[in-house]
Every structure is written in structure tokens, then in C-alpha cells.
Amino acid sequence: MALVLRNLFQSELLSIRHGVARPAPEDTKELECETADLILLPIAGVLAKHDGPKQHVIANANHAIFLGVGQPYRITFPGDIGDEALVLDFSKEALMQILSEVAGVEQLYVPALRPHCLLPPASVLNRELLWRHLQAPVVDKLAVQEISVSMLMASVQAACVDNRLQERVRQKLTQARRRQQVESVKELLSLYPHQEWALDELARHVHTTPFHLSRVFREEVGLPVHRYLIRTRLAQALRAMQVACTDLTQIAHASGFANHSHFTSSFRSVFGMTPTQSRQRSSML
């Protein structure tokens, strides 16, 4: 097998690699073992993961595959097509926290979880969104972390043998605590919108896990954390734009946007017009 791995993202919470595998005539189909629990998200092609004699699963771009630490497996490629995939490697501490909250387990490879799953349609779209973020000229760390946590959550939920596990774990946290954590994060983002936040950093501030914060923030606010931060930055930028002589690039940087292009695309996606068009509209009033 010819395998090309490329590092796309690295943070304290997780690292992400892009792998392209192509079958080769000299393939020996030897067993492999991972040194960490990994989540494999195929984005093209097809693969077969073999866990033992006559035990294999087929995965394409609709699936997630779990690779357990120390668990032997081998990969083959039906039709000799090969595959392309994202490999998500969460820190051991973060993975244990997320798995505990989602399913009450501490490892990916346990009887309570299937070693693979069919992703919900929304998660397939999220994986493509993650890929686009990773290919952007300036990578939005918070967005990549939040979408990755969401992908892990959806994969684990879909792989749960007994979905009642999730409900029992979820009931441990009270509504009041959820709201307090969310409001504390909103306060941080409102006070320091220009800062380059990371999901795990925000979670530490409110004494919770990245997964829990990502989930309850979306449920309570109606937006993911990174979209709320963009809205907060845009509100600050709108105020600054009232001073007609202030350069838009200067406003973009002061509001926390990486560059003018990022500012313009974010502004258009929320308000349906560019910053320049907004200024022209205001000048006519």
C-alpha cells in the first residue's frame, strides 16, 4: 500500500492528518496497530477494515471508523480504488472526557461501542465543512476544534450499542449549570472578541470539557461557539464602521478577523452584503 500522510492541523486538543492510500501490487496485508485511539473519516474511495478472520467492515465517505490503541487490524481496498481520509487524533485526556460524557466509556474500542458507524447526513456535511476549513488560507482554530468535537460526538452516538447510556450521562448535569457555563463563555467572547480563542481554552475557563461546551452552547444559544464569536466581532466592526474615514482593513484586524477577505466573507454571510455596500447604504440615509 502506498500511503501519503500530511499534517493539516495541530493543537493541544487534537491533531488532524490527511491520508491518501493507494493499493500496490506488493501489498502484504500485514496487521497494523495504532499507538492511540483514532477516528478515521473517509472522504473519498472505499476501504475494508479487517478485525479478524471473516470479520470486516466496508467504509466510504458516509462512515466513521474507530482505530483502537493496541487493537490489530488490516486495511484492504475493494476494487483497487484506494481511499482518502481525515485522521482525527484527540489528546488522551480530551478523548476520555468526551467519551465519558457521551457514552460513559473511556476508550473507543469497547463492547459498548461498535468499531464503525454510518454517519448521520448532517455529520457528512459537517465533515465536508471541516475539510473546507482545513484548506482555508487562514485556519480558524476554534471552528476546526468545534466541528471535530461535533464529529466525534456524532460518531460515538451513532456507534452506541445501547443509546440509553447517553441519556443517563446527560441527566447528570442540571439546566442551571449549563446556562451558567454558556453565559460565562458569552461574557468572555464579548469582552475579548479580538482574541484567537480555542475550544479547549474556553472549556477550561468554565471548568468543563470541549465536547460538553460545544453541545450545550449550541443548544442554549442556537449557534455554535465559533459562529457566535464571528457575530460578536461583526457587531463590533459595525460600530467602528460608523466612522467613515476608518479603513476597513484596520477595522477587520481590530475586530479579530485574520484579514480583509475573511472579514468581508463573514460580513456577507451574516448580513447579505459586503462591508463596502453597508457603508454606501448608510451614507444614503
From TrEMBL:
Coiled coil: none annotated. SMART domains: HTH_ARAC. The keyword Transcription applies. Keywords: DNA-binding, Transcription, Transcription regulation. Transmembrane segments: none annotated. Pfam families: HTH_18. Residues 183-281 form the HTH araC/xylS-type domain. This is Helix-turn-helix transcriptional regulator. It comes from Undibacterium umbellatum. The lineage of its organism: Bacteria, Pseudomonadati, Pseudomonadota, Betaproteobacteria, Burkholderiales.
